[in-house]
Amino acid sequence: MPPSRSRRRSPPPSDPRPGQQGKAQKKSRNLRKNIPAVIIAAVIATLLDRAVMYLRTPAPAPGLPWPGAASDPLHAQELHALHHQPSEDFCAAEPPLVCAHGGDSSDGAPRNTLEAFQAALQQGVPCLEVDVARTSDGRLVVLHPRDLAQLLGGSSAAGGAAGGAAADGGSSGADNEQQQPLPQVGDYSWEDLAALRWQGGERVASVEDVLRLAVSAAQHITLDARTHTSKGGEDDSKALAAQLVDLVAQTGCSQCLVWAKSDALVKQVKELSPDQPVGYIVMNETAAAREAGMHRLLRLPRAEVAALHHSMASGEVMQKLHAAGQRVHAWTANTAGMMRAVLDAGVYAVVTDHPRHLLAALEARLHICRSRKEAAAAEAAAAAAAAADADVPVVTEL
């Protein structure tokens, strides 16, 4: 019988080779040890992306000086915040509408003229705010009492300084009206007003002419109706409401919104045309406004819009109005600080005398919001990849 040979027994197939299990465990430990480094690298990459994004953010519109900026030490700081520091609420909401208050007067066209509204539309401003008043003979015209005062002999009337009505700096002008009574459109006939000219030859516009111009080009049109009480004590709110409803129907202005400081007029419009969107003015900046109850929220529950003075756009106020289903239009935001505050509050629309500035700020902010979203997605993907690597099972080689 041949001598027996000793044979090395092969390890069972299920057992790892000597030392292989230790190598796999070591590899797993090293991988887990490297997870913080992976996350740190992702964070650094995100910060670098944001720095590049900041440098590429569109700058404020060139050649458009901000009124009063030279005398405001906080302007540069507010301008930076307006363009480069959008809030999370702003980024989470739909981009607000930019509403040109009386059109765009950046190039010298007087406010509330056809030329100013045309300029706004040519600049791509999606929303117009139009001051509406009724003449003594029943014509609807686009004119504010301050504009009328200037046309009748103020600094921007025919023969005076160019450029149209002075900006109100975000104020409603109520204080000025109390200090010095302004002429009222309702005391003049259409013939009287049609004879007036601004320095550049611009005429007083009719509401119909403005709607014919804008109805096919503007995304949204706000008609700010201004009532008049005659010397005999007769109020024109009912007649004004009826004419507005008829004119909106005649011009096919489905994007028209009617609001007013007169709650009675707003209610009348809603009674005459239940489907017509309306808004009511909310403000507390003057004693007269507070005494009239204009500071009260939700006082017109059927209204679709609350026209909120920019100074009242707080988180609490916004929450109440949104909970009631009312959209918020903030007015009149004319400084970088005012614009920043109402944008960060998450309003639906912003009325301003400087629509080009606000459009530039929106472009910059939306760019930053998109970059934040992309950076967050990349960071989440990196973290998910690191977590997936950490959970890779140990594979035993046979």
From TrEMBL:
<dbReference type="InterPro" id="IPR017946">
    <property type="entry name" value="PLC-like_Pdiesterase_TIM-brl"/>
</dbReference>
<dbReference type="InterPro" id="IPR044236">
    <property type="entry name" value="GDPD4"/>
</dbReference>
<feature type="compositionally biased region" description="Basic residues">
    <location>
        <begin position="1"/>
        <end position="10"/>
    </location>
</feature>
<feature type="region of interest" description="Disordered">
    <location>
        <begin position="159"/>
        <end position="183"/>
    </location>
</feature>
<protein>
    <recommendedName>
        <fullName>glycerophosphodiester phosphodiesterase</fullName>
        <ecNumber>3.1.4.46</ecNumber>
    </recommendedName>
</protein>
<dbReference type="Pfam" id="PF03009">
    <property type="entry name" value="GDPD"/>
</dbReference>
<dbReference type="InterPro" id="IPR030395">
    <property type="entry name" value="GP_PDE_dom"/>
</dbReference>
<dbReference type="GO" id="GO:0006071">
    <property type="term" value="P:glycerol metabolic process"/>
</dbReference>
<feature type="transmembrane region" description="Helical">
    <location>
        <begin position="35"/>
        <end position="55"/>
    </location>
</feature>
<feature type="domain" description="GP-PDE">
    <location>
        <begin position="96"/>
        <end position="362"/>
    </location>
</feature>
<dbReference type="GO" id="GO:0008889">
    <property type="term" value="F:glycerophosphodiester phosphodiesterase activity"/>
</dbReference>
<keyword id="KW-1133">Transmembrane helix</keyword>
<dbReference type="GO" id="GO:0006629">
    <property type="term" value="P:lipid metabolic process"/>
</dbReference>
<feature type="compositionally biased region" description="Gly residues">
    <location>
        <begin position="159"/>
        <end position="172"/>
    </location>
</feature>
<keyword id="KW-0319">Glycerol metabolism</keyword>
<feature type="region of interest" description="Disordered">
    <location>
        <begin position="1"/>
        <end position="30"/>
    </location>
</feature>
<keyword id="KW-0472">Membrane</keyword>
<keyword id="KW-0812">Transmembrane</keyword>
